[in-house]
Amino acid sequence: MGIFMGNISTESYREWTISVFKKDRLCSRFAFDICDPSGQKQHVSMGGENVDRALARAREMIDMEIALARDDL
Question: Is the whole-model pTM more than 0.90?
Answer without folding.
Answer: no
